[in-house]
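Dear support,

I submitted the protein below through the web form. The confirmation email said the job was done, but the results page showed an empty box. After a refresh the structure appeared. I'm attaching both so you can tell me whether what I see now is the final result or a partial one.
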Amino acid sequence: MKKHYVTIGMIAILLAGCQKESDSKPPKEAKIEKKVVLDIRNPKVEIASEFEELAKVYEKENPEIDIRIRTVGGAADDYSDLKAELASGKGPDIFTNTGYGNAETWRPYLEDLSKEQWVQEAYPGTLDAIKMDGNVYGMPMNLEGYGFIYNKQLFQRAGVEQVPKTLPELKNAAVKLERKGITPFATGYYEDWKLGVHLLNVAFARQKDPDAFIKKLNAGEVQIPDNPLFQDVIDLLDVTLKYGNADPLTTDYNMEVDLFAKGKTAMILQGNWIQPMIDERAPDLDVAFMPIPINDEPTDQLVVSVPNYWVVNKQADSSDKKEAKRFLNWMVNSEKGQTFITERFKFIPVFKNIKTEKLGPLAKETIAAYEKGDTLDANWNGFPAGVKEEFGSAMQMYVGKQLTRNQLLREFQLSWDRARKAQK
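What the results page shows now:
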């Protein structure tokens, strides 16, 4: 039934938790006649068990509340079930939204959260994607960065002394690793989002003006097949396939991370969100970020963005909405909630009043990149609805040799044209 996206990003609601202790617990002598059930959709499979533990802590402190969590993610997180549930009036009390175009699409189901105190604590720019007509409809989940994550020890063993900043340098590193019997890349291409969202985004992000490029695409003034950066991304994809693990189309998210964490591959295209998974499998693994080079032009930029926003179902009962806001508030405002968020979830807070000390090396690099201001954007929030999934499917067909390079580029354009026409 109702699901939730409550994970790390809850940090944001920290300030909203200004309620008194007596407001969060019923008097000891009070008899609880009927519990309020909060249904939450959690898209972060990386912290599924940790989030369940957090919910139990909250229920213990608030015996009048029952929390039901449904964790989705990877290939399962396509939102089709969520659309059906919301349309039938049985959607979750808390779920997530990526902002921009998706916020407009889902606006009838989004509760206005403009009056929450955490709004004033959000870092500059982190609310832009979820603002409509001056109102704020979601709380930033967290800050995330992604690129290639590499195993320092394996690089050292293979004699890779410098972090590759160009595609030729990346190829050379892959050759050195292979000569030492090390598989260079973990390629979990069973996940279409890894291809159609994270990888293809680099072609958009490396444009001189990504927003202007997307506007021109929507106006029919430019064509994807004519843009060399999309060719470059396919060049990178080819490199990962040549020097990656076998059977990429049947290698899913967990399998991919497992290959990397166990030292069977040297690099993985992922983000700081896999830190808890790495810590669980190989707590002593020495890892770091490197950029995503796609051509001869050197780069040292990571992609850094707010991946999702926690939203409250506008159609929920008033009591459910009230408790949903209070729960989010508790997550980021209580000591226990913050400990889960920063130490167990390893989320990077996007609020000034939450400390970030024990998040792991990948988070530290993400924060440093964000503070430096030299990052690439996550542009998929500005894509027409449905195009990301089609991008991913087409790239999987290319990986499976069902499409040629030129056919793939043409499919990108056809998908975009269909999606933008459907929006009119």
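Response: this is the final, complete result; the empty box was a page-load delay. The chain is about 40% helix and 15% strand.
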